[in-house]
TrEMBL record:
It comes from Pseudomassariella vexata. This is Uncharacterized protein. The lineage of its organism: Eukaryota, Fungi, Dikarya, Ascomycota, Pezizomycotina.
Amino acid sequence: MMGGKIYEVGFLFARAGSLDHMSMPMDIMQLRLPYKERERERCVNMIVPKKEHEVIKHALDCLPWTSMGWSIHWGMRDILLAYAKPVLDSYRGQLAALLKKTVRDKPYLMDKRGWDPQFVRHNMGDMAASAVLAGEGNSGDLVRIVTDIARALVEDWDMAQIDEVYFWRRPDLKRQLDIAGVIALIKVFVVEWSTEFDYQMYHDLPMSLC
């Protein structure tokens, strides 16, 4: 920002293209993004070539760890969630169950992190599981509960290990809900529960792509 003027920032280079599925190469993927004005019945189809596909996976693996929702570039949030949400959805039940089981079987981990013992033993696991299953929300308290349980699972990891995991860059068939997978998916959960800002920085795609 200079002199009050906000310049557009592009995460991916967007340009008009054809949606001829018969001629699309096998390594091309398509993401359905909500339209800029958030009209429910409208969307933008974004074609993602292989190079940009790898950029998205790298960005997801390198999302910074945070214990609270954060303001994120509106267009970037849509792109990351459009790619990651189907994978998170496929693991959502397992992830919720794992967080709940961790609190139930190892409440001392949360005691050590300063949580009220009564809350840990009676409410924390259920609240974490419900938040993950909800798919979206805006409660900073619930985000902190979920992320603190996940952080307790990797208390011997330093921040560099948490900030960059290796999950999204694995081949699809080799992804599994191991510890790195848990951390990677929790980071996407935080993006789901994060707020958006629109400082004229959006993937300004032409409506001809709809």
